[in-house]
Amino acid sequence: MEPANFSRPSGRVILRHSPATGKPYWAFVPASLPPELEQDAFAANAALLAEANRKLGQLDGIGQFLPNPDLLVQPYMRREAVLSSRIEGLHTTHAELATLEAMGELEAWSDTRDVHNYVVALDYGLRHVPEAGITRGLVLEMHRKLMQGARGEAFSTPGEFRTVQNHIGNTREHTDARFVPPPPDELHDCLDAFFGYLAAAKPQTPALVEAAWLHYQFEATHPFLDGNGRVGRALLPLLLAWRLQLSHPLLYLSPYFERDRGEYYDRLRAVSTLSEWSEWLRFFLRGVVEQADEGVALSRDVINLGADWRRRLDAHRAPRSAHRLADLVLQFMAVDAKMAERMLGVSTQTAYKAVATLVEAGILEEITGRPWGRVYLAPELSAIFSR
Predict the structure, then answer these.
(1) Mean pLDDT of 58-62
(2) Per-residue pLDDT at 135 exceeds 60
(3) C-alpha–C-alpha distance, residues 217 and 222, integer Å
(4) pLDDT at position 109
(5) Helices 207-221 and 277-315 meet at what angle, rounded to 10?
(6) What mean pLDDT comes out for the span 48-60?
(7) How many CB atoms lie within 10 A of CB 245?
(8) Sign of the alpha-carbon dihedral angle for 246, 324, 334, 295
(9) Of 140, 371, 381, 387, whose CB neighbour count within 10 A is largest?
(10) How far apart are CA 256 and CA 221, in angstroms?
């Protein structure tokens, strides 16, 4: 990391020496939030902020009219997990994830296992954030769930903040790294400031602005040995649902960050090196607008598909168990008979009949080709989330 690149830093650039080699290296310590901004700092993004809030309200409105909001929350969480993990080089598809979850074949040290762990961590956070907000304990438990059984488990100390220096960049030496976050002796104070800011009431700061600031701050602090990016992105829907009192967490920004990955990293880095808070906020708010629009379109497609499935099942004079299974498929995309039996609370025979009814109605397709352990996927739903 070259200090010359930090011509107008938003924090401190400090010199340290590697305990292993004694070599000097530079590290960056972000200043505590809120950032020091010009008086008219919000003016440049005021119209975009208003639009982002309006779009987010439209998306939240869709969730309020659903009899079962999990019909959207569950598939959105899995889409978020797939695309947030892809930013880190972990590749699987929504359909592959759903299929392997239904089969129960999630091998350790695999991309799909890592993505599934993201779902587990995100689900845990969304269920617990209403109780006490975003706390150290919540973040540590999310990290533990993310990294257990993952490829980085051996060196990531799941559920613990780091006690050694880390860096960003494919290099062994901190001196050659693209970015070096706070050294261990500075990390404690950084985390105190981060969680202190989270806990403080800030009615004068718009929630979306606060979310943009906090996402940068977590990335710049990089408090874990591995999994920082995924935990940081998973915290965004928690933060928005908590601060904005959203009825349901339907806004996820990883699809936007993944599409514009280069600018995403450049904007984060420019906050550190050049104090470009306004430019980062503009990029972030643009993502809220785009993802809210995309979320509304996806939600309508899923709702319309569910209505079409109900019409098909009515035409087949399907029993109630088949209708309940269709709702389950809308959430999880793939099922097997055992999963249907367990989640519907019905007999084995009833579960098999419900699956067969959905196959006859063209809702499910068997995808394993096996005479045993069969798994059924909803291809129309898969197509919606593959766009």
Answers:
(1) 90
(2) yes
(3) 9
(4) 57
(5) 110
(6) 95
(7) 10
(8) negative
(9) 381
(10) 22
**Secondary structure of residue 148 in the 3-state scheme:** coil
Q: In whole angstroms, give the CA distance from residue 293 to residue 134.
A: 27
pLDDT of amino acid 106: 65
What one-letter code names the amino acid at 209? V
- Cα 96 from Cα 382, distance rounded (Å): 10
**Overall pTM > 0.85:** yes
DSSP 36: -
Instruction: Identify the CA nearest to 183 among candidates 366, 1, 306, 25.
Output: 25
Residue 115 in contact with residue 90, Cβ under 8 Å? yes
- Taking the C-alpha atoms of 55, 59, 60 and 62 in order, what is their torsion angle to the nearest 10 degrees? 140
Nearest to 79 by CA among 45, 47, 115: 115
pLDDT at 152: 74
Of residues 333, 381, 376, 383, the one with CA closest to residue 355: 376
